[in-house]
Amino acid sequence: MAEDDIIHTKDGTVDYQGNPANRKKTGTWKACPFIIGNECCERLAYYGMSSNLGMTLLALSASVHGIRPRCYAEDNCDPTVAQSAVFFVALYMVALGTGGIKPCVSSYGADQFDDTDETEKRHKSSFFNWFYFSINIGTRLYRNQKPGGSPLTRLCQVLVASFRKVQLAVPADRTLLYEIADAESNIRGSRKIEHTENLSFFDKAAVETEPDRIKGRVNPWRLCTVTQVEELKAIIRLLPIWATGIIFAAVYSQMSNLFVLQGERMDTHVGNSSFKIPPASLSIFDTLSVIFWVPIYDRIIVPVTRKFTGHKNGLTQLQRIGIGLFISIFAMIAAAMLELERLRLVRRHNYYERKEMPMSIFWQVPQYFLIGCAEVFTLVGQLEFFYEQAPDAMRSFCSALQLTTIALGNYLSSLLVSIVTSISTRNGKLGWIPDNLNYGHVQNFFWLLVVLSVINLGAFLLIAKWYTYKKPVGTLR
């Protein structure tokens, strides 16, 4: 039995035949190159499609009669309901496809490292760095985690059981709360979670009463284990940290929005040549920044900070996220300062009607580079944080939860633009973001994001200070 423990993993993972995974032949960095390579190809497909989707639909709308907008005058063309439907269906099909794979791949890769083995556990943190690195640039080896049922069902059971017992008092002796032995668990690879005192209302779900059993079997909609209750508490504790990622995502989204509009009004020539670089292409410097900072972080920053902090990863996940939020503020400051300088040039030389200023578009590189640096700290930190702090049975679910901040950040950015445009165009004014940015004040929008980011960072620091980390107990089941 002792020899078997050395040979096989103890976290419930199995090989492709369904047998306990062999430590030497499966998982770790033997399997991860294939997972990272798959993610690299998926990102190539996603960005190749999403970056060209607008131009593709625009070309189709001009050439295919059925989706050509109906024009009442030269500058008055409105899409029909069907044409709008084609546009949004295309967008949400891309979102559905990428949403299906992204939360699973990061969790799948992290599952290749056994939490009960200290060496593999250290390598897991490094995996998240190189996983994100692969985004930007063999079946027989994989370890598979057996499905443990729907996480949403488990959460709903706690909610229903808690409200059914709303009149009951939770016993002072928490050891009286319902829990089952490791061997009886139907979710292999998950650990029991130690009881916590906060959010005690949900403890009612673990208070055992006579009606909780039907013919000797527990009704899961009336009685839940302490671990189930703590899973719900863990999700609730994650939500404030999750919410602070939305503002960061709004800042991140400017690379495909206002940064591009700003670049269109600058000199897009490469040096003294006639070649012109498309403004949207400057996002390559964000990618290069990520490729530059991931090895620096993994090979230099982690070992150096480990000497000072004593933490195995150098920085805690929350410290890493906070540093990224701080860096993102300077990305917006750089964008605002550049726009101020560009507008000074416009006013000094009366370039209002000039499409391109005699100012190189490569002055935008610092703001792209800073956002790439912030990504390495915040987005990779979030990937690791949501995986590690999620209940063992809900890691893919929490990885998906983390990705929703990107979507909500984009929606928030659109909402802010709409609100700002509505307010700033009152009384016939051109507003902050007119069609011709030479008459606008885009820098004010960047300053708005700076203010929101500072407030968001302050909120994050308060939340992080009071955050209670998950406390698994016992062995992996």
TrEMBL record:
Gene Ontology cellular-component terms listed: membrane
GO MF annotations in UniProt: transmembrane transporter activity
Subcellular location: Membrane
Pfam families linked to this entry: PTR2
Keyword Magnesium on entry: no
Transmembrane portions of the chain: 239-261, 282-301, 321-340, 361-380, 400-424, 445-467
Protein family (similarity comment): Belongs to the major facilitator superfamily. Proton-dependent oligopeptide transporter (POT/PTR) (TC 2.A.17) family.
Protein name: Proton-dependent oligopeptide transporter family
Organism classification: Eukaryota, Viridiplantae, Streptophyta, Embryophyta, Tracheophyta
